[in-house]
Amino acid sequence: MRKDFPLKDLNWFRTGGNAEFFSEPRTVEEALSDLAFAKKEGLDLNILGEGANTLVSDSGCKGLTLHPANKELSLKESPEGLVLEAGCGAAVQDAIDFSLERNALGLEEFAGLPGTIGGAAFINAHFFEFFLADFLLSATVISPDGSVKEVDKDWFEYGYDVSRLHREKWLVWSAKFLLKAGSDLEAAFAKGRAFEIIRQRSRRYPKERTCGSFFRNFLPEEAQGKVPSVAFYLDKVGVKGTLSKGQAIVSRKHANMLETKEGATSADVINLAREMQKLVYKNFGLVPVPECRFLGFTSFPLYTKDTIDG
Ligand SMILES: Cc1cc2nc3c(=O)[nH]c(=O)nc-3n(C[C@H](O)[C@H](O)[C@H](O)COP(=O)(O)OP(=O)(O)OC[C@H]3O[C@@H](n4cnc5c(N)ncnc54)[C@H](O)[C@@H]3O)c2cc1C
User: Fold this and answer.
1) Which pLDDT value is given to residue 161?
2) What residues does each domain of the chain span?
3) Distance CA 159, CA 131 (A)
4) pLDDT tens-digit series, residues 199-246
5) Cα of 122 to ligand 1 centre, how many Å?
6) C-beta of 303 in contact with ligand 1 (< 6 A)
7) pLDDT computed for residue 83 by the predictor
8) Could you say which architecture CATH assigns to the domain 73-204?
């Protein structure tokens, strides 16, 4: 357990302040002991994976921030296929490489996706038509009061960019995925596909100091028959590579991706995101909703439908 621990180098934007308390549990026992400490001290609980989808407040993060270090990967045969068990702290790419080396196929659709298994399970990570939930069988989850249980995929109540974990604070400790057992030839094709996806990603998306798509696409009921893609509207208002606030700028490669430069603050990112919301609202009457998660903020830092006119 460390106190006043800097989170700046633990998130992709490379901004934000310190965690009041910080721990990197490697085993369930260590995680339980951390949770017991938080309960005893009355501390809020925060969970941070690779920080590829998180903006940390400049004033830091009150309470205990867990950065789980359970990176174990294992593969077992089952009557339905191969079952990959991955620790929440394992990088998604490591889980993909581990699987492909053992001819276990499916997860290569997420090749190049930054972040951990825990972060991907939180948001139901997706790439084109593939969602992580398509492969998820079950997971071991831990509640803040220390109960450990095995849950199936339905427990997560997955939707687009949303899960039960958005409402309830559970630590996903590990997850099991059902993968297809492939031949050597099929595995070679899958590796080629993974390579190509990574190549495409690096051409289309910024490679650092970003959280990928900052806003999620509009749900059908929000879009009211209009185009659901938020990047479509951001492209139209012409922010790409030009709109900036302080040291945060909209990526030249993608209108829905924000990048930070050296010296940027999280306030720069917030100010830029708010300006983007205003522009889309002014021109199209829609208020973009963030996909990015906020850590350490005392209130929601962006506009909502109720506050944008104020
Ligand atoms: C360049 C770039 C491209 C991207 N492309 C995509 C894409 O194609 N598709 C896509 O879906 N996303 C994409 N993202 C976003 C990001 O990769 C995913 O959201 C990823 O799943 C984040 O994982 P993380 O470990 O970094 O999570 P973090 O950012 O650390 O955390 C995100 C959320 O998950 C929670 N969380 C993390 N670990 C756990 C855990 N063990 N238990 C419970 N909750 C947990 C955190 O509390 C937080 O609320 C992209 C990001 C970048 C930087």
Assistant:
1) 82
2) 2-66, 73-204, 215-295
3) 10
4) 999 999 999 999 999 999 999 889 888 899 999 999 999 999 999 999
5) 7
6) no
7) 98
8) 2-Layer Sandwich (3.30)
